Amino acid sequence: MESLVSSWTKELDGRAATATLRQQQGTRNKVDFCSNDYLGLARNDAFQARLLAVAQQEPAALTGASGSRIIRGHADAVAEVEQHIAYTHGNASALLVGSGYLANLALFSCLLKRGDSILLDEKIHRSVHDGCKLSMATKWKFRHNDLTHLESCLRKAKGRVLVAVESLYSMDGDFAPLEDIITLANRYGAAVIVDEAHAAGVFGCGVVHQKGLQEQVLATVVTYGKAFGLAGAAILGSKLLTDYLLNFSAPLIYTTGLPIYHATAIRTAYGFLADNPSLALSLQNLLARFAQQGMKTTSAAVSPIQSVRFSDSTCLLAATAVMQQNGLDVYPIFPPTVAVGAERLRICMHTFNTPSEIDLLGKYIRAWQQ
């Protein structure tokens, strides 16, 4: 026990020495440029009023499901919300789960067997990698958005093959070339799974839905802890897929079902976004303002995630400190979240940010990027 504690202390001290020690962060009285609340729903008074009305109509829905969804923990009201989500996204079936992390564990842990292959974009979310650790399939990584390298991996892959990508990447703020990836995967008989955590809500029901690709992907994951201002996630796909997951996915089978209120709040969010299309338009107007600041970023102009690089880690830390001291809540990203040498500020834009706040952010970033 003593040696274990000593090793933990040494590792934590190492992170503290390099200013990369992670700590829990609450709400700070600064301008938010780091949360995933892209459309501002988590702080929207009108949305909160709708949620309160839902809770008041059925207080019993606030309590837990009290069991696994395959025993007694799946209410009819939750099933109705899943049907609504599936219909809204143009899919046959949907399964609600507690988080996007859990959704990816549920998917990647059980779909393939020993002798099969999972091909991951190197910048896909950590939850996908962790899901693969629970699988007996062989995991391969291909270079980010590199179709040539993906094809090389497809040629070598054994057994049944899955290709997994994000539609909008959480750290780089760029998009996957979904149509090209699907075409390439089809050529080699591989299936595609798309994580839409950062696209859903900002781009309607997500990029897969916008492009009409539902029938061409095996599964889509959408999450509700970002643009929807809530928590949880949905796995979208065929009825066969969801039936298989309910029978063979341990993260779904051996966990308590969602409370009714959790599901009805998600349905409420869909309705609120449908009634307020101006939110997504306002975000794009602010992103256009951000683009006018002359900062160096490799992210897509329409992405709410803007990846800002600096000359080195020392410069990144110094710039972050100055911005924090001047009331701008920004967050630096270090390894292992990103590769060594790829440290950056991950700037998140929101509908509640003002033009003057964006101008101030641009002023500080330009000063430190030079």
From TrEMBL:
Q: Which InterPro entries match?
A: Aminotrans_II_pyridoxalP_BS, Aminotransferase_I/II_large, AON_synthase_class-II, PyrdxlP-dep_Trfase, PyrdxlP-dep_Trfase_major, PyrdxlP-dep_Trfase_small
* Names of the cofactor(s): pyridoxal 5'-phosphate
Q: Does the keyword Transferase apply?
A: yes
The record ties this protein, via Gene3D superfamilies, to: Aspartate Aminotransferase, domain 1, Type I PLP-dependent aspartate aminotransferase-like (Major domain)
- Keyword Transferase present in the record's keywords: the answer is yes
Region forming the signal peptide: none
According to UniProt, this protein's pathway is: Lipid metabolism
Alphabetically, the GO molecular function entries are: transaminase activity
Q: Where is the Aminotransferase class I/classII large domain?
A: 29-351
UniProt entry keywords in alphabetical sequence: Aminotransferase, Pyridoxal phosphate, Transferase
Q: Which PANTHER family match?
A: 8-AMINO-7-OXONONANOATE SYNTHASE, CLASS II AMINOTRANSFERASE/8-AMINO-7-OXONONANOATE SYNTHASE
Which family is this protein grouped under? Belongs to the class-II pyridoxal-phosphate-dependent aminotransferase family. BioF subfamily.
Protein name, UniProt field? Pyridoxal phosphate-dependent aminotransferase family protein
Q: What is the lineage of its organism?
A: Bacteria, Pseudomonadati, Bacteroidota, Sphingobacteriia, Sphingobacteriales
